[in-house]
Each structure stands twice: as C-alpha cells, then as structure tokens.
Amino acid sequence: MRHRSAGVKLNRTSSHRKAMFRNMVTSLFKYERIRTTDAKAKEIRRWADKLVTLAKRGDLHARRQALAIIREKDVVHKLFAEAPERFGQVSGGYTRVVKVGFRPGDAAPISMVELVTPEVKKKKARRKKKAKKAAAPGAATPQATTVEDKADASPPADAEVKTTDDTVAPADEAAAEAPAASEPQEEVATEAAGTEPADGQTDATTPADDAAAEAPPKKDA
To answer: Are 45 and 96 members of one domain?
Structure first.
C-alpha cells in the first residue's frame, strides 16, 4: 500500500529531490518553459501551482514562503508582480505539459512544461439582451418624427394650383399649333392632284390620251 506518500521519489533521497525541484521551478518561472522527463514534468506542476497561489495572495508571509522555495529574489519579485493580473481571474490551470518525444540517449519520454495565460470567457448574452431592451423604447420615436416631417414637407394648395396651370399651358399651345401644322399637308395634296394651268402654258396630257391618238383607225367590216 502507498498511503500517505505523496509525490514521486525518482530513486533519489529527499534532500536531492527537493533541491532538484527547487532548481526546476525557479527555471520555470524565470524562462516560462522547461523541458524534462514526463515524471518530473507532472511533479513540477504541483510545485508551480502552489507558488502561483502564494503569489496571488501577495502578502509578506506568502512572499517569505516563496523565497524559501525559489532561491532567486528577482524571480520571486517577477512572479508576485505578474501573477495577480495573469492568473487573478482563474483558480487553476497555470501550467501546461506537452509531450515532445523521446530522449536520444536512453529513449526516455520528454515533455515541455510552460506557463499558460488563461483566456477569460466574456458573457455576451446579457449584453445582447440589454442592447435589445434599450433599442425597443426608442423605436417608436423615429416613426412619429417621420410622420411630422412628411406633414411639414407637403406643399401648400397654392403651389399645387400653379403646377397644374403650368402643366396645362403647354398642352393648350400644342393644340393651337396643330391646325397650322396640317395646312401645308393640304396644300401638298392639292398640288399633287393638279391645278389649272396658267396663261401661256399648254394643257398637260395624260399617257392614255397619247396612246389613243397614235392608234390607227379601225376598218369597217
């Protein structure tokens, strides 16, 4: 049975194991990603999550507890400065473990551990409902204003009478000019039909009369 034995031993003494994880978690917060074996990567997440929780708390006691694990003051100050903004809205999931492949020497599985900036989902449904409610009362006012604008834009009665007079006048002028345009056509028709010859001119003969004159007289039977 393996009761009350948290963590992995990794075939090392407790002092060696703690010193190794201190160095690894310091490198993780300093460079934001490290590569190690799968077993060490899964264990380093426990250490990193604990330190991020202390940084989010942000008081003096939490800073001293972090300094007992991380041996570089600059890394601790960086962690406590960035953690409230970076991880303040979530309560977990500060790191990510990605399997990379196998180590060339002994074919040990290698993983990459990196810090993650979680994305916060924004609530859009409530904003849409508020936008619809705000748009509903104001929808009736533009209709009232448009009706009033149409009433104001209608021209007076005098203007309508003037426009009707202007439209009727060209039609009357066209009707008056119509007989004058038909007179030349009648004159052309009379000229085509033929007029009496003037003095000093011979009568015009038709082709039928010329043919009758040239034909010889018929003999009696």
So the answer is: yes
- Of the candidates 64, 17, 97, the one whose C-alpha atom is nearest the C-alpha of residue 6 is 17
**Residue 124 belongs to a domain:** no
Tokens 């992995």 belong to which residue? 8
Per the structure, the count of domains in the chain is 2
Q: Is 175 left (phi over 0), alpha (psi -120 to 50) or beta?
A: alpha
Is residue 60 one of the residues assigned to a domain? yes
Q: Do 110 and 21 belong to one domain? A: yes
Radius of gyration of the chain (CA): 55
* CATH, residue 74: 3.90.1030.10
Give the pLDDT confidence score for residue 182 in this predicted structure. 47
The per-residue pLDDT for range 102-140, each reduced to its tens digit, is 999 999 999 999 999 877 666 666 666 666 666 665 555
Instruction: Return the SS3 of 83.
Output: helix
Tell whether 99 is covered by a domain. Answer: yes
Report yes or no on 101 lying in a domain: yes
Structural domain span for residue 183: 154-191
- Its pTM stands at 0.53
158-195: b (≥16 Cβ within 10 Å) or e: eeeeeeeeeeeeeeeeeeeeeeeeeeeeeeeeeeeeee
Cα–Cα distance measured from residue 70 to residue 216, given in angstroms and rounded to the nearest whole number: 149
Q: Could you give the 3-state DSSP secondary structure of residue 138?
A: helix
Question: Structure tokens of 206?
Answer: 């038709």
Mean pLDDT to the nearest integer, 153-180: 51
Tokens of 68: 């007992």
